[in-house]
Amino acid sequence: MNTTSNSTNLRAGVIGLGQIGGGVAICLARHQRPLAVYDIRHDAAEKLEGVPAVLASPADVARASDVLMIAVLNGAQARATLEGPDGVLAGAHPGLTLVMLSTITMDELKELVALAAEHHVALLDCGVTAGGLSAKGEMISMIGGDDAVVERIMPVLNEFNAEVHHMGPTGAGMATKIARNMIHFTVWRAGFEGARLASQAGVDVGKFIDLVENASRKHGASVTFWMDPERIAPGSDPLEIGKHTLIYHKKDMNTAKELAQQLGVETPTADIARVMGAETYRVED
């Protein structure tokens, strides 16, 4: 068995053939990458174009792989995939690299990295976005791990991603995914509250959505605007911009709160944002 494959002929494996893992496997097969797969559903690969039949165990996939993507539901399933006589680590060999595509907690990641290290295997954390586009190779991945290891497996990562961002050492990829998802779902909640407030005030929600989207495209600031004050407006004073913004923040958010109270609409996300303005804009209140 070849255990010293270079970056151009690395054998790939995928465990978990759901929406993300199945799409990853399709992309790798499309690129004619040597591929082995496993799923608890023995027929999981049958409708995945170009993907070979499921092997008998995660250990078998590990033996047949140099880069093995794990795309299961959660940390508990990830651990179960690694451990035991039929687990990935039972089939580990020198040079095997594991790539955790599942979103798990940082504590779970730390435990699994240590477990893999006991078997002289590198486990990298790789958060992904746009899982619904995985079969088209249009996901964006954010990976954490040793520079040399990431560089070695990059040809495989590139075959199922539109973009791959190396965010830093082990843990950086998962932390990026977790933080990004927090923003994602918080913004959705803010949109829900805004639409409910507008609707209760008699505004047509369809028209409201069109207005918000159009205004955001033409004039709205990105959700990243206040993440780093130094990047807001190069050459300008972020402190002065913050002070100016806080004035309008208070006026507009207090007005929204007053309307919400009048209409009996609960806006907990907006309530937090309303009182945290000074911290958001890095100024004294």
SS class: alpha/beta
What is the CATH first-level class name of the largest domain? Alpha Beta
Strand content: 5-15%
- Pick out the low-confidence regions: none
Helix content: 40-55%
Number of helices: 10
Topology:
Blueprint lengths: L11 E4 L3 H12 L4 E4 L19 H6 L3 E4 L4 H8 L14 E4 L5 H13 L3 E8 L9 E6 L2 H12 L2 E8 L3 H29 L4 H14 L19 H26 L4 H8 L1 H4 L5
Parallel strand pairs: 1-2, 1-3, 3-4, 4-5, 6-7
Antiparallel strand pairs: 5-6
Helix pairs in contact: 3-4, 8-9
Short structural description:
By secondary structure, the chain is of the alpha/beta class. The chain has ten helices and seven strands. The longest helix is centred in the middle third of the chain and has 29 residues, at 172-200.
Could you explain how this protein is built, in words?
The chain is α/β, with parallel strands linked by helices and 285 residues long. It folds into two domains: 12-169, Rossmann fold (3-Layer(aba) Sandwich), CATH 3.40.50; 177-280, Orthogonal Bundle (N-(1-d-carboxylethyl)-l-norvaline Dehydrogenase, domain 2), CATH 1.10.1040.10. It has ten helices and seven strands. It has a seven-stranded mixed beta sheet with strand order 2-1-3-4-5-6-7, sandwiched between helices. Helix 5 (147-158) links the parallel strand 6 and strand 7. Helix 3 (75-82) packs parallel to helix 4 (106-118) and helix 8 runs antiparallel to helix 9. The mean pLDDT is 94.
